[in-house]
Amino acid sequence: MTMRTRNLGTTGPTVSALGLGCMGMSALYGEADRAESVATVHAALDAGVTLLDTGDFYAMGHNEMLIGEALRTAPAALRAKALTSVKFGALRDPEGNWSGYDGRPAAVKNFAAYSLQRLGVDHIDVYRIARLDPDVPIEETVGAIAELIEKGYVRHIGLSEVGAETIRRAAATAPIADLQIEYSLISRGIEREILPTVRELGIAITAYGVLSRGLISGHFSRDRQLAPTDFRAHSPRFQGENLQHNLNLVEALRKIAEQKGATVAQTAIAWVLSRGDDIVPLVGARTRERLTESLGALDVTLDAADLAAIEEAVPADAAAGDRYPSAQMTTLDSER
């Protein structure tokens, strides 16, 4: 396999066609093996994956320190190719509870200082607030990142989970490389207004949740018991009849995948890849085994007949349940 590349918008860097989402190595999906996580980052870099995505609030800095360790122990040639994408702004307490978002310029610079230290890098390649701070105009937050770019601490500005109006305001303030937002076969809301807007403005999409947190990976069983600390234990799509309905969609997709000689996960990732060269899926592999499977999506070609069959099996808006619990849905500017 030869890794393909895509550009993060008209102003952003060239990155691998698939990025590695590192959140699950530290938080929200239960315990993860640190040594295996580091080995998975190394394997991703060795396979040509250049984009590593994290957030400073993933296990309160743990994820950034893990990536820092992986970069520090990687061969120099691979380390030099790695690009860091960092989200900031989410506020948490020592018990792990969430308490809002802070997009004030002073906070932006404070968050960046700590991220640079934890990652062990002299700059962050793409920096973005995780959610819009309702009390701070996006122009002020983006303007603060632009100041960090002027000083050499950040290379590019990104956005996360914001709607079309906010995207336009941000882009009028400074060049925006990409919008990070959930996009998958069963999360297609961006197609209505957000995707046309970013394309008009020359902004790329880095798509997270391409397997809907494992729901459409083909590996999630109906009787699987989730730990209380696992985010999915509280996610509407993983509850009761919603789960049964959604796993029926997975079985319909499995039939198509088998005809292609691919796994369900590979088919779901390939579908996101097929949506446009301006979309970079982030695969949340926590192990080398899952990483290898995800990378196999690059070898899956979906023709018009395949795409039509997938559309019939998993129509837009076919999923049961919101993608986040109701309290978190209210924080999403992209859902307003």
Structural notes for this entry:
The chain has 336 residues and is α/β, with parallel strands linked by helices. The chain has a single domain (5-335), classed as NADP-dependent oxidoreductase domain (TIM Barrel), CATH 3.20.20.100. Helix content is 39%, strand content 16%. An eight-stranded parallel beta barrel has the order 3-4-5-8-9-10-11-12, surrounded by five helices. It has a two-stranded antiparallel ribbon with strand order 1-2. A hairpin with a 5-residue loop joins strand 6 (90-92) and strand 7. The longest helix is centred in the last third of the chain and has 21 residues, at 240-260. It is globular, with a radius of gyration of 19 Å. It starts with a strand and ends in a 7-residue tail after the last helix.
What is this structure, in a nutshell?
The chain has helices at 34-46, 62-73, 76-81, 105-119, 138-150, 164-173, 194-201, 240-260, 264-273, 288-295, 304-313, 326-329, and strands spanning 5-7, 14-16, 19-21, 51-55, 83-88, 90-92, 98-101, 124-129, 154-160, 178-182, 204-208, 279-283. By secondary structure, it is an alpha/beta fold.
